[in-house]
């Protein structure tokens, strides 16, 4: 079914999804909407339960997470690594609940529990007039953090479309209410148009996209396939690259959003050096709340040499 879905164009008109084959998706969306109306503390509790269930049952994803944690945090002992794996599933379970808040509720109601740090760095970068590339990462607060930040700045977003066209329609329409433009992951023309208009664009580089247009730059000390597109975009547009992150507080319901000074002398002309810098920035942010990162992704899937043994071994049955 997924392969069939991928052949379909993006269509955000809900009238195109009346056929009974879409009813299961509509049911899932309805449940998400209902859960999103619950008090946030109760949603966090539900998210914790969902995360623990995934930790118990999703053996393949747990294996990937365990490998990533072992590689990236060798200074932790086995018990500490195991605790971080468990907490990562809990954090991402809560993030699943927050997805509904981002899509179906007004994030403006959460600004009272949101602290924003360093917005002056973003404003200074925007004054250059060449646009701003917000260098983000796949944190568990992905959608809600992005929605919250649009209460303080105007921004566009690039997204990888969902394999399910109806779910993609819901996601795109929801993000369209928060962002100025929702660009496809390969819509570089749209990206450059936004930057030319001196707009900010949310952009993430921290996943393994295969061997095309990459260098192997250290990420937590491990050579990781890292795309060079960030340098190319900055070189062609003259935009500023501003590191950006968002995390859930541990002590009480609330969120912190961070902007950092724009990267200086970027791009440098050296792809490896640039990729090393962007990876270091993302790593620095992850260390603020290690459990709130998407460790379930096979970040080190592509190895420097095709003959190098993989880290993840055979994919286990879930």
Describe the structure.
- With 318 residues, this protein is an alpha/beta fold.
- Helix content is 45%, strand content 15%.
- It contains 11 helices and 9 strands.
- The strands form 2 sheets. Strands 1-9-8-2-5-3-4 form a 7-stranded mixed sheet, with helices on both faces.
- Strand 3, helix 8 (165-178) and strand 4 form a beta-alpha-beta unit.
- Helix 2 packs across helix 5 (78-104) and helix 5 (78-104) packs across helix 7.
- The two termini are 19 Å apart.
- The relative contact order is 0.16.
List the helices and strands and how they pair.
Elements: H1 2-6, H2 23-36, H3 40-57, H4 59-72, H5 78-104, E1 114-117, H6 119-126, E2 132-136, H7 142-149, E3 155-159, H8 165-178, E4 182-184, H9 188-196, E5 200-204, E6 214-219, E7 222-227, H10 229-237, E8 240-248, E9 255-259, H11 271-286
Parallel strand pairs: 1-9, 2-5, 2-8, 3-4, 3-5
Antiparallel strand pairs: 6-7, 8-9
Helix pairs in contact: 2-5, 3-5, 4-5, 5-7
């Amino acid at each position: 079914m997924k392969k069939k879905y991928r052949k379909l164009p993006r269509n955000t008109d809900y009238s195109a999804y009346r056929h009974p084959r879409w009813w299961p998706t509509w049911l899932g969306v309805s449940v998400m909407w209902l859960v999103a109306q619950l008090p946030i503390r109760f949603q966090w509790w539900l998210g914790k339960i969902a995360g623990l269930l995934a930790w118990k049952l999703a053996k393949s994803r747990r294996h990937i997470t365990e490998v990533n944690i072992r590689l990236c945090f060798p200074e932790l002992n086995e018990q500490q690594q195991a605790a971080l794996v468990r907490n990562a599933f809990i954090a991402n379970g809560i993030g699943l609940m927050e997805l509904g808040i981002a899509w179906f509720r007004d994030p403006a109601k959460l600004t009272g529990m949101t602290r924003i740090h360093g917005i002056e760095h973003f404003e200074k970068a925007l004054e250059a007039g060449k646009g701003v590339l917000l260098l983000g990462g796949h944190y568990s607060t992905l959608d809600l953090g992005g929605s919250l930040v649009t209460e303080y700045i105007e921004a566009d977003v690039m997204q990888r479309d969902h394999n399910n066209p109806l779910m993609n329609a819901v996601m795109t329409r929801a993000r369209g209410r928060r962002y100025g433009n929702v660009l496809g992951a390969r819509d570089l023309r749209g990206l450059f148009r936004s930057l030319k208009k001196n707009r900010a664009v949310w952009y993430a580089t921290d996943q393994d996209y295969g061997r095309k247009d990459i260098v192997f730059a250290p990420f937590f000390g491990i050579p990781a396939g890292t795309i060079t597109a960030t340098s190319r975009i900055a070189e062609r547009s003259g935009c500023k690259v501003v590191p950006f992150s968002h995390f859930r507080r541990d002590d009480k319901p609330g969120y912190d959003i961070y902007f950092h000074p724009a990267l200086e002398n970027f791009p440098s002309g050296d792809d490896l050096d640039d990729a090393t810098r962007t990876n270091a920035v993302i790593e620095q942010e992850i260390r603020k709340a290690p459990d709130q990162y998407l460790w379930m992704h096979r970040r080190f899937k592509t190895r420097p040499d095709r003959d190098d043994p993989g880290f993840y071994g055979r994919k286990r049955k879930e």
